[in-house]
Write a structure and sequence with these properties.
By secondary structure, this protein is α/β, with parallel strands linked by helices. It folds into three domains: about 170 residues, no CATH class; about 100 residues, Vaccinia Virus protein VP39 (Rossmann fold), CATH 3.40.50; about 140 residues, DNA methylase specificity domains (Adenine-n6-DNA-methyltransferase TaqI, Chain A, domain 2, Alpha-Beta Complex). It contains 18 helices and 19 strands. The chain has a seven-stranded mixed beta sheet, with helices on both faces. Helix 6 crosses helix 8. The protein starts with a helix and ends with a strand. Bound molecules: S-adenosylmethionine.
Length: about 450
Amino acid sequence: MAIAQSLTTTASLHYTPFIRELFDTLLTDSWCEVSSNRAIEFVEGEADVAVEKLVPYETRSEQGIFFTADDITMKIVNSLAAEVAVEKSFFDPSCGAGNLLLGIAKSYPIKKNLNRTIEYWSKKFGGCDLHDNFVIAAKLRLIALAAIRHGLPSISEGQLASFVRKFDKFYTGDYLEADVGGDFDCVVANPPFGHVVASRSNEWSSGRTQLAAIFVDKIISSGKKGQKLVAVLPDVLRSGSRYERWREKLAKETSCGAVELHGRFSKSVDVDVFILNLNNKPSVVGQIIEWVPPVTDTEGSVRLGDLFLVRVGPVVPHRLEEGDEDFPFLCAKNAPAFGVTFPEERIKFGGTKFLPPFVVVRRTSNPCDKNRLITTLVKGIEPVAVENHLVVMKPFKGGVNSCLKLIKALKDPKVTSRLNNVIRCRHLTTKSISSMVLQGV
Ligand SMILES: C[S@@+](CC[C@H](N)C(=O)[O-])C[C@H]1O[C@@H](n2cnc3c(N)ncnc32)[C@H](O)[C@@H]1O
């Protein structure tokens, strides 16, 4: 926590010029076109421009400070239209400068005048962030939005200070250590996407774990019955085998879970994300969450895992399990893309080997690639030791012919688009490959 606090101060201090200008703008005596436009910029993208300009990239990356862009905010806001219409309350546990809350407040009802709206909104909106200047920015931007929606009346210093005080459901600190937000009707979240070591008491993970998963777990454990959660999360939580137990836990404790694939988070953040929407602690639990959009099997289609053994290559070069005999060795570097190989390099290896013919694909691939499954047909008469950057697909029946049919089927653009639905993170899993529905194999 001491580290978090010292970093907090740094990131927060960097953001001070933005807060000062926002304060000064709100205290404008008489609104002219320039100052009104500036106020509008503050509730639009200016908070993001400022964070990128003022807070160094290393600090932002270390602490997951990447504010939500309009496209994702709009998707989240649209999915909450019914809750906005009945004036539910909204909490963001990692609120940053409040982009998600602002998105909601843009269509949230207002009252007769600015004072009444602030009084009302301060009971409906809340948030938490490690950084005090982000929390202040979120409150000031909500005030600016309310002022804009009331035609920009002039605001005195005393009035502004009292407006800020009114928003007393905002907290500065570590959400994971605090007990806040549980009594709100809805939680909206774009949590940090960094990693931490899971605590010993964590039942679904150990070792290096996504903070976003820990955030969701905390939201679920501390939220009231029936609380709605809409969160933007890294794709690995949806598709990574490491998070299978996290997904099972969510399915057990929530209902109406729905997943919307989105794609890359933003131009500067190369992480694929999805939007999770669910109800917490419902009266009927245990409903299935469709983490992967269903594929309708057409006639003659078959799942890859039914015809091929799918395994990650077991050779980790820097942790080589040496044996007495040497064998042909295949690694990503000497596997020609869309070609055929008879591996010539040899290593001593005591672990599992694979007898050709079989097909390998590279484990790392990008959803933006036209073809994510770059294949190599492996031939030879001796068992081959395969590096762990490759995934082996060995036919249960048939030899080279089955391999050639598989290579052809994997080139189908539909396969890449289905694979992108199943997994958008960079590391392919054996499960994602086995689940591919193919035609003509
Ligand atoms: C990805 S940003 C999202 C900000 C905002 N929700 C939005 O949508 O623009 C994540 C935010 O979480 C904050 N944060 C990181 N760790 C946190 C923690 N343990 N508790 C509360 N906030 C945290 C960061 O300061 C950052 O502002």
